[in-house]
């Protein structure tokens, strides 16, 4: 808005006037800011009107207001009619001014005087603010949680066709949380129009208050001024339900699986928990104690729906939600009819909806041409079975256009099918199926097929089964009838045959076969036999009687049950008939005189007789025939022959078992005269049995034997071994002879014999593995079947031979027969065998004798040297003299002794210093070196048990003074190798236990007596490894005596001499002890053994 | 519910027993009067069998209702199931009742419960459940007949059904699904309590009526079911 402030100053007024006159609008704009500033300054100072503002709501009236302190205002608008208004308020409503600038002069009158302000006003300075809208109606559909508002756009007040934008705010809870801000566009039409807006809340409306308000904005393209939003309309609200029997919302809602849903609970008590199914959900607190839970991606419900439960202190509220799927498109919709009266449509429901009971899918089958429909509703939970609907066919309508609509609370789906129903006939199973005879080769079949098939033709299929035959299918086309009864003729059947019939039908425009009817068995009637029986004749062995054989007719030729046979023979003289032969007999015998008869055989059943089969009785003589051999395969044998043009009728092969007696006939076979080969096959053939085959040719009404053949259908190995004997035995050869094997046991054509022989005794070894190619077995293969003997040469005399013979055929080896034969003695060889060893033995003896004689001196030296007499040895004699008187002493006394008491005397005997010895063993030396280091407290156990020896105290020993001269066997053996046993007692007068130094003692009885005088009689035992002369048990010089003297002195030790070692073991053990002591040189402790 | 052969045979045996003994009810057959003893014993046995049968049915049905109804510790307040006959009664009050009153209460209660059960059967969504319910309904019908037989034997008249009672007992469609489930839950619970109470009632009655020595009773082999 351009504003001029005009004070009553000529300058200013002139100036402004001149400017208005001389300049354009642009110039005015340029000066506007300055003027505004001046106007403000002056106005503020003097209370002039300022800040003129104009707004419009309807384009027609501008509502202008300004600021000022006047009590009266004069407002003049300079337009075509210069009009002025006198006002008491700073506000004026003026009609909308035409486009362009308009000068508004507002003069304010106040106590100070007056002040005038000029404003330039155009539409651009006017703000378009629509009138505040009002919500006429706010309604809620609680079942769908939908809010609906209605308001009036008051378009009549606005002349323009303008677009209006409405902004709608939805607030929730008392705290006014904004939940939705939506815009809605409408167009003003110049009339008052009511508008509606709907909004579906995610939260059920029952649980929390919802508030709505709106405002508008008119988007008028013609209006050049400023456009603004209207004020917000007053709030309208939908309150929660305060008191309802139902507490949880929504109730029993059906939703799509996977959708999000909010449940809420209206409660006056505090809700403690909420759960859906088994899942506990976090609570969303609403106003008061109301709560809600939000479920996202809900899963499909069970049959009874999903329970949602809110629990308070002492109550529980709940609802059931049904989450499922909309129905699937019905699959495999198929419509067909069984009877052209009713159409059956079946389909597969597809994916289960998870909705059952009243929410289960309902189906409507609508036929669009007739507009008829049928409904299907299943309350039960759907299984995946096929669904079916029946639709009654309409007369004279063949084409049906079906639409199947599936519907449930979540949606619907449909599928269509158009069918010509006459092409979709699936007839019922034919019933009342019956068979009726027409003649022996034809029957009629009748059945019922319910249905209205008068307008179409049926195609039926007859299945015919005959024993031992392949199944036959015959198709027949029948005109459909109203009466449902059908009849058809089936011919080309065999007489007297059991047939089984089935029937099924379809229509000519094939859709589906009906099921097969139940089977019906039928025996066709008899007819006369079609052929005479196959006949043969044999002359009896005496040539007088002719035996006529015939084979029973096969069922296909008998055409009924054969009751009897008529046999007659005719010659030029006349015909002779035998009486009727009842059926099971297939043989007749006639006495005929001479040949040249024609025999005829006729089979007869209940209907009539067969044509006769004839055979000539005459046997034409034949040349000598060579018996041939033949081998078959399996149970068949192939015979061939050369065609003989003279044979005019036929060939007959007859065969029999060779073992049977004459006349031999097992069976025969007739072959046309044009054939030259046949395969004989019979169940009677057995492998390994020989058969005779005779080929007859027929000419001039007589039969001539052409060939005679023996054969096997299969050759086997012989069952027995040939029986053989030894005819002759010599020193180097054996002659063996064997017999033939009977034909029955041969079981094949004999091909030869195998003869084995080897050296061997009867008991020694059986002939093991003849075929294994052992080198010592000799084999002869005899293929000349006429050969019945065999001579085996180059044998050893007086030797046992093992002979084996076996026969073989092409079927294999027969069993073996063995025999032991000893060849005769060879005398020359025996003599030589005795003489040669004798001669050799004599020669060896002679040579040996000569050699011995010549080397006799050497032999003596070697084997018999002179041995000197130890008696003569001077070197050993000294000892004898020394201990002359002690001969009573024994060294080795093998007395048993038993210790009865052992006393341990602990002593620290002084070890005399070893000073000089004649002999010091290396062991002793080492022991001596170690003696200082060794502690003295070694325990040595005496090996002498306390046996009272009768001989001690031995006065001789005491005299000899030698308890110390105890000698152990080990030591003794070491140092007295030359000593005679007898000398022992001399040397060792005391057989006492104790120590014997490892040295040769210069035993002197006197010296030793003095040396150990003090201890004599008490002490045996230990002696240091020193000269006996140096023995001093209690030597003060001894390094060991210092501390042990006092202890040792009163009782310096030891073992009583009267306790000698008692056995060799004891001695040896004592010697070991001694050695140990030696080694350590420590005589620490000995046991005193009191008696 | 898994209908085992044992259940079917058991029920069959039960029904056969009921039918077999019906002629023996004195009200129906006055000629060879064996007294009410056998029919009370038979009713008692049938009650025990029904208790057993209900255990299996309730398991199946509560599973069908889904959690939390099938949770073992679920014990909701009795909402909206006021029309169901309550089995719970003060011990003193119960003792003060005479035989006729007790039998009448039993008879009325089972008549109503049977109506409810049939309504339940109509709503069940699965064929299997319906079969189980129908099976139980048949048994309960048998019990009702049995109680009627006992009452007749003792010379008590049958309570006259109030006109229009039968359809009114059927649960109304106004119920929400949840309240319906609560009703179903309570129905099963009340049935259980009633059967337990009836067993006590019949046992008491049996001891009272039956001379101890002359008791020749037929025991149903309920443990084999």
SSE topology:
The complex is a heterodimer of chains A (1091) and B (225).
Chain A: E1 2-6, H1 10-22, H2 25-46, E2 50-56, E3 61-67, E4 72-78, E5 83-87, E6 91-95, E7 102-110, E8 113-121, E9 126-128, E10 135-141, E11 146-152, E12 163-172, E13 177-187, E14 194-200, E15 210-219, E16 226-227, E17 236-238, E18 248-249, E19 253-256, E20 261-265, E21 271-276, E22 279-281, E23 284-285, E24 291-295, E25 306-312, E26 316-324, E27 331-337, E28 342-348, E29 362-367, E30 373-377, E31 387-392, E32 399-408, E33 411-420, E34 431-439, E35 442-448, E36 457-465, E37 472-479, E38 485-490, E39 498-507, E40 520-523, E41 535-539, E42 545-550, H3 555-558, E43 562-570, E44 575-577, E45 581-582, E46 587-591, E47 598-605, E48 613-616, E49 618-620, E50 627-631, E51 636-640, E52 650-657, E53 667-672, E54 677-681, E55 691-699, E56 702-712, E57 724-729, E58 734-738, H4 743-746, E59 750-759, E60 778-782, E61 789-792, E62 800-809, E63 812-822, H5 827-854, H6 856-863, H7 878-882, E64 903-905, H8 922-930, H9 955-960, H10 969-975, H11 984-987, H12 1005-1011, H13 1041-1048, H14 1064-1080, E65 1086-1088
Parallel strand pairs in A: 2-9, 9-16, 19-26, 49-56, 50-56
Antiparallel strand pairs in A: 1-8, 2-3, 3-6, 4-5, 4-7, 7-8, 10-11, 11-14, 12-13, 12-15, 15-17, 18-20, 20-24, 21-22, 21-25, 23-24, 25-26, 27-28, 28-31, 29-30, 29-32, 32-33, 34-35, 35-38, 36-37, 36-39, 39-40, 41-42, 42-46, 43-44, 43-45, 43-47, 47-48, 51-54, 52-53, 52-55, 55-56, 57-58, 58-61, 59-60, ...
Chain B: H1 5-21, H2 37-65, H3 91-96, H4 99-123, H5 127-154, H6 165-169, H7 177-209
Helix pairs in contact in B: 1-2, 1-5, 2-5, 2-7, 4-5, 4-7
């Amino acid at each position: 808005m351009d504003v001029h402030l005009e004070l009553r100053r000529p300058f200013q007024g002139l100036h402004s006037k001149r400017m208005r006159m001389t300049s354009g609008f642009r110039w005015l704009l340029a000066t506007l800011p300055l003027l505004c500033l001046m106007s403000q300054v002056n106005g503020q100072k003097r209370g002039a009107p300022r800040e003129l503002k104009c707004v419009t709501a309807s384009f027609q009236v501008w509502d202008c207001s300004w600021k000022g302190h006047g009590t009266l205002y004069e407002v003049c608008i300079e337009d075509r009619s210069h009009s002025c208004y006198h006002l008491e308020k700073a506000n004026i409503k003026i009609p909308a001014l035409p486009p362009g600038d308009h000068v508004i002069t507002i003069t304010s009158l106040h106590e100070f005087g007056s002040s005038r302000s000029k404003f330039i006003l155009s539409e651009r300075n006017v703000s378009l603010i629509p009138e505040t809208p009002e919500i006429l109606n706010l309604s809620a559909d609680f079942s769908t949680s939908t809010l609906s508002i209605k308001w009036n756009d008051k378009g009549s007040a606005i002349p323009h066709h303008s677009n209006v934008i409405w902004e709608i705010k939805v607030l929730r809870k008392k705290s006014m949380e904004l939940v939705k801000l939506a815009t809605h566009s409408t167009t003003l039409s110049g009339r008052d129009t009511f508008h509606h807006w709907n909004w579906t809340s995610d939260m059920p409306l029952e649980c929390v208050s919802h508030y709505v308000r709106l405002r508008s904005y008119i988007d008028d393209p013609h209006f050049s001024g400023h456009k603004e939003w209207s004020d917000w309309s007053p709030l309208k609200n939908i309150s929660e339900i305060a008191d309802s029997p139902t507490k949880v919302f929504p109730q029993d809602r059906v939703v799509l699986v996977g959708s999000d849903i909010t449940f809420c609970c209206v409660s006056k008590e505090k809700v403690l928990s909420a759960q859906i199914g088994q899942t506990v959900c976090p609570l969303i607190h609403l106003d008061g104690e109301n709560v809600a839970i939000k479920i996202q991606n809900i899963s499909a419900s069970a049959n009874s729906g999903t329970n949602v439960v809110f629990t308070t202190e002492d109550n529980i509220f709940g609802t059931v939600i049904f989450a499922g799927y909309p129905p699937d498109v019905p699959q495999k919709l198929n419509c067909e009819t069984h009877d052209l009266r009713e159409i059956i449509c079946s389909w597969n429901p597809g994916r289960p909806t998870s909705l059952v009971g009243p929410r289960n899918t309902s189906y409507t089958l609508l036929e669009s041409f007739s507009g008829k429909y049928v409904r299907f509703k299943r309350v039960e939970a759907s299984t995946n079975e096929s669904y079916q609907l029946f639709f009654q066919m309409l007369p004279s309508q063949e084409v049906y256009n079906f639409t199947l609509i599936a519907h449930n609370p979540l949606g619907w789906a449909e599928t269509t099918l158009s069918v010509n129903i006459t092409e979709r006939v699936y007839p019922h199973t034919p019933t009342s199926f019956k068979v009726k005879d027409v003649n022996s080769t034809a029957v009629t079949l009748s059945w019922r097929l319910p249905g209205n098939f008068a307008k179409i033709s049926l195609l039926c299929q007859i299945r015919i089964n005959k024993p031992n035959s392949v199944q036959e299918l015959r198709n027949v086309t029948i005109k459909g009838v109203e009466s449902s009864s059908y009849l058809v003729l089936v011919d080309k059947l065999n007489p007297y045959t059991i047939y089984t019939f089935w029937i099924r039908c379809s229509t000519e425009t094939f859709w589906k076969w009906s099921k097969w009817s139940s089977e019906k068995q039928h025996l066709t009637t008899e007819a006369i036999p079609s052929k005479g029986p196959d006949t043969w004749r044999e002359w009896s062995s005496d040539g007088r009687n002719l035996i006529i054989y015939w084979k029973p007719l096969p069922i296909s030729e008998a055409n009924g049950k054969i009751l009897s046979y008529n046999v007659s023979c005719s010659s030029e003289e006349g015909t002779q008939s035998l009486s009727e032969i009842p059926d099971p007999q297939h043989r007749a015998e006639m006495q005929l005189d001479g040949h040249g008869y024609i025999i005829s055989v006729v089979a007869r059943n209940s209907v009539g007789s067969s044509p006769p089969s004839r055979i000539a009785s005459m046997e034409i003589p034949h040349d000598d025939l060579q018996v041939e051999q033949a081998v078959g395969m399996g149970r068949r044998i192939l015979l061939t022959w050369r065609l003989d043009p003279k044979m005019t009728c036929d060939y007959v092969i007859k065969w029999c078992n060779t073992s049977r007696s004459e006349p031999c006939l097992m069976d025969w076979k007739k072959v046309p005269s044009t054939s030259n080969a046949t395969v004989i096959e019979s169940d009677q053939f057995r492998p390994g049995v020989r058969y005779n085959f005779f080929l007859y040719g027929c000419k001039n009404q007589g039969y001539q034997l052409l060939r005679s053949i023996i054969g096997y259908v299969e050759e086997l190995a012989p069952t027995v071994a040939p029986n053989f004997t030894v005819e002759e035995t010599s020193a180097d050869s054996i002659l063996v002879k064997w017999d033939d094997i009977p034909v029955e046991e041969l079981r094949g054509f004999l091909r030869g014999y195998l003869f084995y022989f080897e050296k061997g005794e009867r008991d020694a070894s059986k002939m093991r593995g003849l075929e294994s190619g052992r080198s010592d077995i000799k084999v002869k293969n005899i293929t000349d079947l006429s050969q019945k003997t065999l001579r085996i040469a180059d044998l050893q005399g007086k030797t046992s031979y093992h002979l084996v013979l076996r026969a073989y055929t092409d079927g294999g080896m027969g069993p073996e027969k063995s025999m032991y034969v000893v060849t005769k003695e060879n005398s020359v060889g025996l003599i030589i065998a005795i003489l040669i060893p004798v001669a050799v033995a004599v020669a060896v003896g002679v040579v040996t004798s000569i050699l011995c004689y010549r080397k006799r001196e050497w032999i003596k030296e070697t084997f018999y040297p002179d041995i000197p007499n130890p008696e003569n040895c001077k070197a050993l004699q000294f000892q004898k003299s020394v201990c002359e008187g002690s001969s009573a002493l024994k060294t080795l006394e093998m007395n048993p002794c038993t210790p009865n008491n052992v006393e341990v005397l602990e002593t620290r005997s002084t070890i005399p210093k070893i000073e000089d010895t004649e002999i010091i063993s290396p062991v002793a030396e080492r022991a001596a070196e170690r003696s200082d280091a060794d502690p003295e407290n070694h325990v040595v156990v005496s090996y002498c048990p306390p046996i009272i020896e009768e001989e001690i105290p031995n006065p001789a020993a005491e005299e000899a003074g030698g308890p110390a001269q105890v000698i152990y066997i080990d030591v003794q053996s070491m140092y007295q190798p030359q000593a005679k046993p007898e000398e022992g007692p001399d040397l060792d007068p005391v057989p006492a236990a104790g120590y014997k130094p490892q040295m040769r003692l210069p035993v002197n009885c006197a010296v030793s007596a003095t040396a150990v005088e003090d201890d004599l009689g008490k002490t045996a035992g230990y002696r240091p490894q020193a000269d006996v002369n140096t023995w001093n048990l209690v030597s003060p010089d001894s390094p060991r005596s210092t501390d042990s003297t006092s202890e040792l002195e009163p009782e310096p030790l030891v073992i009583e001499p009267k306790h000698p070692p008692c056995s060799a073991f004891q001695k040896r053990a004592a010697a070991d002890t001694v050695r140990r002591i030696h080694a350590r040189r420590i005589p620490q402790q000995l046991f005193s053994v009191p008696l | 519910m898994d209908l085992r052969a044992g259940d079917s045979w058991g029920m069959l045996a039960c029904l056969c027993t009921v039918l077999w003994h019906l002629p023996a009810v004195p009200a129906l057959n006055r000629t060879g009067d064996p007294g009410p003893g056998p029919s009370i014993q038979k009713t008692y046995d049938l009650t025990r069998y029904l208790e057993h049968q209900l255990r299996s049915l309730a398991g199946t049905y509560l599973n069908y209702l889904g959690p939390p109804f099938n949770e073992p510790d679920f014990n909701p307040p009795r909402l909206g199931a006021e029309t169901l006959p309550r089995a719970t009664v003060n011990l003193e009050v119960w003792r003060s009742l005479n035989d006729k009153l007790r039998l009448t209460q039993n008879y009325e209660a089972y008549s109503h419960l049977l109506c409810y059960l049939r309504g339940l059967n109509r709503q069940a969504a699965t064929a299997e459940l319906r079969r189980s319910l129908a099976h139980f309904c048949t048994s309960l019908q048998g019990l009702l007949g049995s109680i009627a037989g006992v009452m007749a034997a003792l010379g008590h008249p049958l309570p006259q059904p109030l006109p229009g009672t039968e359809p009114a007992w059927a649960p109304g469609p106004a119920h929400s699904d949840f309240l319906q489930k609560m009703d179903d839950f309570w129905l099963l619970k009340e049935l259980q309590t009633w059967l337990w109470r009836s067993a006590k009632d019949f046992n008491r009655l049996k001891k009272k009526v039956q001379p101890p020595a002359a008791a020749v009773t037929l025991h149903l082999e309920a443990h084999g079911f």
